[in-house]
């Protein structure tokens, strides 16, 4: 228990003291007043936060009173009686109203203020902004110290001794430019470069497309001239040359430039670089700069160098990768080569300082999604695409301090998810490799290795078809690089499955084809882990198809919180219980984030059931007395349930027993989306799984029961529960498994089976506690229901007692051992009616079962 004081109550209390202060009775004395708006246990605060925001609960320690209680943790509360009685004061704020006010004022309420506000240049020793020169920067994410991402060498000792440098992303608060905190040596990075753009068929197709676009926007010239800055091996220039254009290039990597020089006029060096062959003014039709603008320490000088050789009609095309890197949390695009991560705002600032105009701001589907910005010396041809981009960034929060907090959290979540997946595959005996020795892959790899004590053989190999990387080792590791064909000759028993982490995820389609070509000749499937743009585990099949096994949940509460939308129908839970303190902790944790209100009909419980709800359930949960005392008459109960539901005719309502857990990730936001798409009366049917479990493993209370017991019995008996909205002319069938039209005219309700959720029915697990529960419940069922076989699962073996129920379980489950399925097993295949269940399960638990 803790005491909490809401700021408005504090302000009122101070105001009261000032206005009604009493004279000092004795010089040198003073009074101490305890102030507290309310008292609550920490877990109750957490569940109430979950009920208001929809955030899932992740318990990191045990709750007092259960098996892992630690006596050194003690609660307390403050008595405010003296202050209230002395001043006639009443505290007005409670747990629900206080937390609701916090949520209503997000993100402002989450950001430190006053003396706690981040100081100017909170990023520490960061360089000044490369665009505007400001030193007022904010730390976004720290990926630790990492080696240069392209430092591939053919000696393990040299690879392990690769020098490491800080890799931090910061945001300029003045122009909203995102950049690295430190600039590594450009000469060390680029003068001997291993990346070649011509090794990817996807890039070659893009080069052809861009050349055609430039030609078209230049008036379909048959003999234009183009300068490519950072021309690499000349692959883009090849596309222009094929159109009949004169081609010129600049690149600092002598080893790569020599390849381009075979077909084009190319000079070695950093831009700006002048050379006599380069046309200037209107003789230069276009300049292209792909994936280089982010590399330069002084981008404004880079643009000024372009402006110097441009004529009034010359078009400058700047392309930067991962245009929505900030919004999508694609931290893997951070490496020492990339100093800058431009936003629309910082692109505009740089162009303004260089005397150029952005005439078009586009995105193109390459390298994830790239920015393609067209600049000219005048704005005569300017459209409104830049203004749209700026508005989008403001809406997404890219220009706010709070955005950095979300970015950092997302980066850590992805890193941890990938780590858990890889460890889970290793624990199951998989051979685990990776595909794509790209710089982005090395960033992700070292972010993982740096944050966890990974075993040496975290990855067995990395596949990449770049000639210059063959026979080398990943920077800072002993992980070898092999060509794709290595999959074909992999010396591994075919019974050992293979998992591949796709590091170059922006070329997933191309990579999937190569994996299938080389790896699936003797194997039926290979599993891939795809970290971006939506982290997922995808199985590649021999027939060329692929299937998503699970995805990383991304159910972060939106800002502003969509649950606060006044047009959203609320979600209301009705349940009933008598002596359910075994399941109640799990029931609370499961449903706290899902419902706006909840009612527990109590059948005169004599255990801790009611106290557990008072202590730990959200503040919006209420206990109401059963209308029939402790007698459990099904029809009378259904009437009481229906009466409570009738109080919410326009909201989503659902009745569950305490043994039924609704598994429906991000439920309220998804229901609101459904409501907007179809506002008509709706009945959602949820199918149930009968859960088994590994009952030899002790339960951990107030943790997800589904994570601890995830085996289910495949049964032909269909067991349903319904959630409904705006259905006042419907009534429940016996047991509330069906919901039938009971009115005049036509039934206009939309009836759907919910493929975004299911019911986990806890009947045979946890064991033996559930056996005791069956006896206790069965004892309250009236003879009239027993005669009609209502609640037969509770009454069938009542006379035999616990021993009889144990025998019944052994008999029923023993007949169906071959039908037991584990939701954690990737090879598990539910029937067609339940094929959505595995994806829902993994989204609910947040990834793999064991790691």
Automatic annotation (TrEMBL):
Tree of life domain: Eukaryota
Pfam family, one: Methyltransf_13
Domain Methyltransferase putative zinc binding: 129-190
Domain C-methyltransferase: 365-523
Cited Gene3D superfamilies: Methyltransferase, zinc-binding domain, NAD(P)-binding Rossmann-like Domain, Vaccinia Virus protein VP39
CDD domains: AdoMet_MTases (cd02440)
Matching InterPro entries: Methyltransf_Zn-bd_dom_put, Methyltransf_Zn-bd_dom_put_sf, MeTrfase_14, SAM-dependent_MTases_sf
Name recorded for this polypeptide: Methyltransferase domain-containing protein
Organism field: Effrenium voratum
